[in-house]
Design a protein that fits this description.
heterodimer; A: 283 residues; mainly alpha; MetI-like fold; B: 299 residues; 2 domains; 12 helices; flat
């Protein structure tokens, strides 16, 4: 059978119809008006949403950095556990991903609310009374929910596993003899980390960053639930144009297009950055 | 390597508290006797009983399970066939197809969802106009159009599942000895027999992983379903519409049940894999499932 490659033809057609054509439609919608003519109006109108773009990128950036700062050391520590423990811990990291993420985020609402669990705990410990007595203030809660901090927390919570798994998988594959060789050659533990472990784990870090940043920059629920609608993000903006009150798929497509371009630029930069290291991940 | 330090252990403890605190809250308040989600008023199983009487939740659970099972099975069959085709392509062609294949994996869910909804809505409006024209032409009522609903939801799920199946089957095909297939044919097997009796058993771990991943992707999806399901509601969509008002503790009860099921499944899979690995005593002792998931992260 020389023509076994023909087995892929239905798949290619399917993907063309349901992936490529829809993306072309997004481009067409972005450059047309409701009446059907060519226009750049949609992109001009986007100017008023500049703050949303900046906020989305900034919060996604923060969430990615925090995920990296938690995820990298965690993966490193995990990789030093025995094989049995590693398996258990990795399972524990993946387990929350099977709980509906809306529910997990909703549970954070119960924790962070003004009358939520954290504020209740602080209040029952008498912290607020203490503060009020010292400073003469009259606070009964700390505002935790409906802040940008809460949105970042929701992003970190939901996407942390996406940072840990790729980094961990690269770190455990590092050949221990490389580390021993470095030590034999006189490197201290910090030098070993900087010169051997860090460069070898870079591919995992890069894919972790993209895997956190892309969903974070495009999320539209977390900001709604934890940000209280005060800090709408790009995802919310797009959602409003397609299913919300502000129905305008043309503007929505234009925003989607810009978001896609932002994501592609990020991926390109990441790939450039990680070039040469790539060999290490491709098995 | 030396054991983790106290600092390492502390970090791990903190992260796991962070990961499980909301889940613990979720589970605890599924037994709360009042509707409050912050004040504990007493223990009850009421929500578990009410859960099974709630038709909205039960219907959306049914839709979710049905679409996930159908999409996962169809995507697994289609993806395996496609993977065989892709494997037999020339390098340049293969890279092009794999780039195409990666689009839904890499792209933000919201863009996948929005772009597909544009396709479905445009197709429906074109078909509506066509039906109208045909109806006038033939003087009879012809309706070729469709509404967004279960069909479009299923198409969307299949579309984002197939790439994951291909990504988990391809590595297994690469490990395959090409001579096996020809040997089987030399021994008198037809093409189909060789495929089902030789190739499939060899790549089965990849297929099974693909199926599991496709199923979990489907069951967990909210964003793409939200834009493509029309009036049909999946469980995530029901929960989402509840978050606008107030989530009933029945949902907490449901997620507690799901959590237990998933936990049991993971334990069984891991115990099985652990015992298999002991048999194989392979050097690369990481679980297969993990490796497959990590495969995708190599964008």
């Amino acid at each position: 059978m020389r023509r076994r490659y023909l087995a892929a033809v239905p798949h290619v057609i399917w993907m063309a119809v349901f992936v490529v054509v829809p993306l072309i439609l997004v481009v067409i919608y972005a450059f047309t008006s409701a009446t059907g003519g060519f226009t750049l109006e949609n992109f001009k109108n986007m100017g008023s949403y500049m703050n949303v773009f900046v906020r989305s990128l900034w919060l996604a950036f923060l969430a990615t950095i925090i995920c990296l700062l938690i995820g990298y050391p965690l993966s490193y520590v995990l990789s030093k556990e025995g094989p049995g423990m590693q398996r258990v811990f990795i399972m524990l990291i993946m387990l929350p991903m099977w709980i509906n993420f809306l529910l997990r985020t909703y549970a954070w609402m119960s924790i962070l609310e003004n009358t939520g669990l954290i504020n209740r705990l602080l209040s029952s410990l008498g912290i607020f009374n203490l503060i009020n007595r010292i400073f003469g203030t009259n606070i009964t809660y700390i505002p935790l929910i409906n802040t940008q901090g809460a949105v970042v927390l929701g992003m970190v919570y939901n996407y942390l596993p996406f940072m840990v798994l790729p980094i961990y998988s690269v770190i455990v594959k590092i050949d221990p003899s490389l580390i021993e060789a470095a030590q034999d050659l006189g490197a201290g533990s910090f030098t070993v980390f900087r010169r051997v472990i860090l460069p070898l784990s870079l591919p995992g870090v890069l894919s972790g960053i993209t895997m956190v940043f892309v969903p974070a920059v495009s999320t539209f629920i977390i900001s709604k639930l934890l940000g209280g609608g005060t800090s709408i993000l790009l995802g919310d903006l797009i959602e409003m144009q397609f299913l919300g009150n502000a129905y305008n798929p043309h503007l929505g497509s234009a925003i989607s297009l810009i978001m896609m371009i932002i994501i592609m630029i990020c991926m390109y930069v990441m790939n450039k950055f990680g070039e040469g290291e790539e060999q290490a991940v491709i098995m | 390597m030396k054991k983790p330090s106290i600092f390492g252990r502390l970090l791990m403890a903190l992260v796991f508290i962070f990961l499980y605190a909301p889940i613990a809250v979720l589970i605890v308040f599924s037994f709360n006797s009042s509707k409050s989600r912050t004040v504990w008023t007493g223990f009850t199983f009421d929500w578990y009983v009410k859960l099974f009487q709630d038709t909205t939740i039960m219907n959306s659970l049914y839709v979710t399970l049905l679409v996930s099972v159908l999409a996962a099975v169809i995507a697994t069959v289609a993806g395996t066939i496609a993977a065989v085709g892709i494997y037999n392509m020339k390098r340049s062609q293969r890279n092009a197809i794999l780039a195409l294949n990666n689009i839904p994996v890499i792209n933000a869910d919201i863009i996948t969802g929005v772009s597909m909804s544009l396709l479905f809505v445009s197709a429906a409006s074109v078909l509506t106009k066509l039906s109208l024209a045909l109806s006038q032409l033939f003087g009879a009522k012809i309706n070729l159009s469709f509404d967004l609903g279960f069909g479009t939801l299923l198409i969307a799920h299949i579309t984002f599942n197939v790439p994951y199946v291909i990504l988990s089957v391809l590595p297994k095909l690469r490990q395959l000895d090409n001579n096996l297939f020809e040997a089987a044919q030399d021994l008198g097997a037809t093409w189909l027999q060789a495929f089902f009796k030789v190739i499939i058993p060899q790549i089965r771990p990849g297929i099974v992983n693909g199926l599991i991943i496709a199923f979990t992707m489907s069951i967990d999806d909210f964003v793409i379903s939200y834009f493509t399901a029309g009036r049909v509601q999946t469980l995530s969509m029901t929960i989402y519409s509840m978050t606008k008002k107030r989530i009933t503790p029945e949902i907490n009860a449901l997620s507690t049940l799901l959590f237990i099921v998933v936990l049991l499944m993971l334990i069984i899979i891991n115990v099985r894999q652990a015992s298999q690995e002991k048999k194989l005593k392979k050097n690369s002792s990481r679980s297969n499932e993990l490796n497959e998931i990590i495969e995708y992260t190599k964008i």
